[in-house]
Amino acid sequence: MEVTRQNFKDTLKTVCSAVEEADFLAIDGEFSGISDGPNVSALTNGLDTPEQRYAKLKKHSMDFLLFQFGLCTFKYDQEKSKYIIKPFNFYVFPKPFNRTSPDLKFICQSSSIDFLASQGFDFNKVFCNGIPYLNQDEEVQLREQSEERRNQQANGVGTPSFISPSSKGPAHVPEEHKDFINRVIGKVEALLTNSEKTLDLEPCTGFQRKLIYQTLNWKFSKGLHVETVETEKKERYIQVIKVDDEERKRREQQKREREQEELNDAVGFSRVIHAISKSGKLVVGHNMLLDVMHTIHQFYCPLPEDLQDFKEVTMCVFPRLLDTKLMASTQPFKEMITNTSLAELEKQVKEAPFKSPQVETAEGFHSYDTAQEQLHEAGYDAYITGLCFISMANYLGSFLTPPKAYISAHSKVVEPFFNKLFLMRIIDIPYLNLTGPDLQPKRDHVLFVTFPKEWKTSDLYQLFSAFGNIQVSWLDDTSAFVSLSQTDQVQIGDLIQAAMLVVFLRQERTRRGDREQDLGGLAEDRVSAAWPPSVVPLP
Amino acid sequence: MEVTRQNFKDTLKTVCSAVEEADFLAIDGEFSGISDGPNVSALTNGLDTPEQRYAKLKKHSMDFLLFQFGLCTFKYDQEKSKYIIKPFNFYVFPKPFNRTSPDLKFICQSSSIDFLASQGFDFNKVFCNGIPYLNQDEEVQLREQSEERRNQQANGVGTPSFISPSSKGPAHVPEEHKDFINRVIGKVEALLTNSEKTLDLEPCTGFQRKLIYQTLNWKFSKGLHVETVETEKKERYIQVIKVDDEERKRREQQKREREQEELNDAVGFSRVIHAISKSGKLVVGHNMLLDVMHTIHQFYCPLPEDLQDFKEVTMCVFPRLLDTKLMASTQPFKEMITNTSLAELEKQVKEAPFKSPQVETAEGFHSYDTAQEQLHEAGYDAYITGLCFISMANYLGSFLTPPKAYISAHSKVVEPFFNKLFLMRIIDIPYLNLTGPDLQPKRDHVLFVTFPKEWKTSDLYQLFSAFGNIQVSWLDDTSAFVSLSQTDQVQIGDLIQAAMLVVFLRQERTRRGDREQDLGGLAEDRVSAAWPPSVVPLP
After folding, report:
1. CB contact under 8 A, A166 and B462
2. Per residue in A55-71, pLDDT tens?
3. pLDDT tens-place string over residues A395-424
4. What is the CATH number assigned to the segment(s) A150-247?
5. Is the predicted ipTM greater than 0.90, yes or no?
6. Which three-class secondary structure string do you get for B29-94?
7. Ranges of Basic and acidic residues compositional bias (chains A, B) (predicted)?
C-alpha cells in the first residue's frame, strides 16, 4: 500500500492494527544518499573498530534523508499454514510544520538519486506528498509551546515573546503603524457597542498582527476572543469575536482540540515508528545498520556520540532486531550462500535445500510478484527481506528432533541472531552486538604501511611477497593496513624487520641510481614525500 | 519549451540560433534552497558591505542546486512592431558522467522544496530527466584524460594507473584470479589461430578487466583491438578483435569520435551557458545576483574568494547584465513602483503610464498566458522579467525628444542600468557594481548595540526614543546595528554618551532592586550575561 500525506491519516489505523497482529515485521529504507565522505574505502575500512565505524556513519551519512520507508507485516495463519502479509510503502518528507518550525536541510548525492531514478523512483511522491514527521524533542517542544501559549492566554498574558522590559505597558507602536492600529481600535470599539458579533480585520503582516494582539490585550481585557485566521489564499487576518465567558471557554476548547489535531498531524510518520517500537515485535532488516541509524535519527533523537549510548537507544526503540545479511553470512548458511546481497539471497532461498514459504497478501493490499523485479522500492525490499528470514528460519527447523517445517519468530533457533547488526566490509568483526560488548579480535598480524601515492595494491603484494598471502585494506592514497596470514606473534617481529629491510634495500638502490630496473619505471619526480614506505604494526 | 535530457541534443541548435538572433535574453533560476545559514536576518544584514554580502551568499547558498534554468529570447520584429519570443525551461541535474566522475552532493532546504511543490514543480523532471553538465575544469580534465588515454594506447602503454613500480613486468595476478586469467589467455591464443574475428569474454569485475588489459597488453602487443563493451543490462565485458593495422586505426578513429560525442553530452547544459556567454547579448534578470552566482558556480568554476575576482569572472561570462529589480527601485521608477517583487512589478507595468509591449510567441513554442499565473517556473519568470524590462525601457523612451515608443536593448537610455545587480535588504547600497568600485556610504550614524537576549525591537526603540527615528538591523539574539536618523557627526558623540547614560541608569536601578517597575517584569534570572546593553559607533 502506497502511503503519502494524502492518505496517511486514513491509513494509520490499518498500519497500527497490522503491526499489532503481526508475528514479525520487516523494514527497509531508501535514502537521498549514502555517504558524503571522501571515498568509500576510507569510510569503510576493513579494520575499523565498531566505534570507528559508528562514528564514520554518524558523521558522513546522517545528513541524508530517509525518504521512503518500507514496512511489511507478517502474520502466520495456522489453519492455512501460510503467512498473511501487509506491505506498506511510506513516502516521508520534513515539510515545515509552521513558519517558526525548523527548516530542515538535507543532502542529496547525485549517484544515489540517479540510481533511484533509474529504478523508477517517484520523487514527486516524496517532495510533494511526503508524510511529515517530528522527532521526540521537536514533538515535546511543540506540545510545550502550545501548552504555554494556552496557559498565558488563559491568564491574559501575551505570548512568551512579549516578556520584555516594555511588555507591561501599552505596545510600542512604531510611527508608521499608528494610523493602522488606531483604525483597528476604532473598529473594535464599534464592535463592542453595535449588534455585530464578529469583526474580520483586513489581512496584514505578522508584525501588525503582533501589534494588534498586544494592543487589544492591553485595552480590552475581557469580552473578546481574538484569533488569527487564514484565507484560502494563505493570507492571514485577525478575527475578533464578542463573547461571554461560556462561549469564550467553548471556543478555547475547540481551538485546543484543533491544535492537538494539528500537532498529531505534524508528528506524522513518527507515529508509525512509535507503533512499531511499542509493539516490541521482532523487526527484520537486510544489512540494516544504516536503516536503524536513520530511523532513530529522524524519528527519535539526534544520534548519541558514543556507541554504547547508541546501543541503549536502539534497544529502547527496537527491542528485538534481526539482520538477514548477518544471518546469511553465519553458519550454517555461510557455506550455502555465496552472495548475500538481497537480490541474490532471495534467489538462493528459492532453491533447495530451502523452501519458499507460502505467502498470501492480505485483502486490499498490493500483491507483489517476485518474478517481476521491483527491487529498491522500500516496501518490496522489506517484503523480500521477510521472505528470506522465513526460509532461513524454517531451514534451521529441519535440524530439530523432530524436524519442524514452521519456525516462529519467537523460536529458540533464531534467538542467536537477535540484536546483531551486520558490519559491512570489516574483515574480522562480522556484527555490531547491540546487547553486549563487541568482539575484539586479535590484530597483531596487521601492519600499518605508508608508501608513495603512485603505489597500487600490486606493489604491496610484491613488497610482502616473501611472507605468504596478505590482505590489503586501503586507508588513503599513501597508507593501508596489511594483514599477514600468519598470526603467530613471535614471527611478526621478524616479518616487520624483513619488510623494513626490503624497504631499505629499495631505498638504497634508488639512491645508487639503479632505480630503473628495480622500481619499474617509477620516475624520480614521482617519488613523493611518502617515500620510503614505512611499516608499523598496529598498536 | 520544456527541455530535459531526452530532447536536449535535438533542441540545442534551436536554443543556439534563438540566442544568436535575439535582441536580448532574460534568465531565471530555481534552486533546491536559498540559505543554509542560521537565520535570514543575520545572513542579509541591512548594513552588510558588498564584500560581506558576497562572502555570505558564497558560503551559505552555493551548496544548493540550480535545477531549473529559464531562458527567454526576445527578438524585435520591426515590421510587426512586436517582440517575437522563444521561452525555454531547462531541467538540470549533475548525473555522474561515468564511474570515476565526481559524485556531486547538494543540499535541499525543506521550505524551498515545499514551496516549489506547492507551485506544481515536477521533481521527477529534474532528478530522472535533468540535463547533465560540467564546469570548465571538469570539462578540461575529462578531455585531457581522454587525450592521455588515447596517446598511451597509441604508444602501447597502459592507462596512467599502470605507471607504478611493477608496471613494466607482467601484471601481478592475485592467486584467486590466476585460473580466470589463464582461461582468458587460452581463449585469446585460440582466437589468434582460428577463423573467428571477434571474441566476447564473459562479463567480469572492473578489477578483472584491469588484469585482462594488463595481461593482454604485455603478452600480445600487436594484432589485437581490445575494448570494454556494456550490455543492455549494464554488465561490462571485454571484446577482443583480431585486426590488421588499417582496421585498428579505423576502429580507434571510431572510438575517438564516440568518446568526443560522449564528452559533448557530458558538457550538456553548460553548452547553453557558453552560447549565451559567447553571444555577448544583454542578459536581463530579476533580483539576479544569486542566479548569476549559481550559474557561474555550476557551469564555469567554483566562485572566487574575492569579490573583485568574482566581478571579473562575471564580466567574462556575462559581459552585459541588467537587473529589473534594481531598475524598478531606481528613479524614475522608484516613485511609481511600490512593490518590486516580480509578481507585483508585472502587474504594475501593465497599468498606465506603462504600456504592455506587443509580444508574439514564436511558432512551435509554448505560449504563456500572463493572466493565468505560472509564476516560479523558471521559463515563465524569465519571460515576465523580459516584459518588465521592455515596459520600463519604453517608458524611458517617452522622455526623449522626440519621444520614442520603442527602446532597444542597445539604447543609451538603458545603459545606466547595465552591470549593476540589486543588493537585497541593504539600507544604503542599492546595488553591486560589476564594472567599478562599489558605493561607500558614510555610516557614522550607525551604532553597534548589544543587549540581553530577551530584548525585542521595541526595547531598542524605547532605549533610543530621545533621539528621533531609528532603524534597527538585527545581527543575532543579542546584537544589532541601530541607525540614527541624524547624520551630523558632532551630534553623534553626544548621542552615544546619552545612550550610555540611559543604559547606566537602568543598570543602576537594577542593582538597587527596583527593577520591577523599570524593567517591566524582566525577571532576574532572565538578565543574561549580555546585560548591560553596550552602544558603540561603527568603526
Report:
1. yes
2. 999 999 999 999 999 99
3. 999 999 899 989 999 999 999 999 999 998
4. 3.30.1370.50
5. no
6. EEECCCCCCCCHHHHCCCCCCHHHHHHHHHHHHCCECEEEEEEEEEEEECCCCEEEEEEEEEEECC
7. 142-151
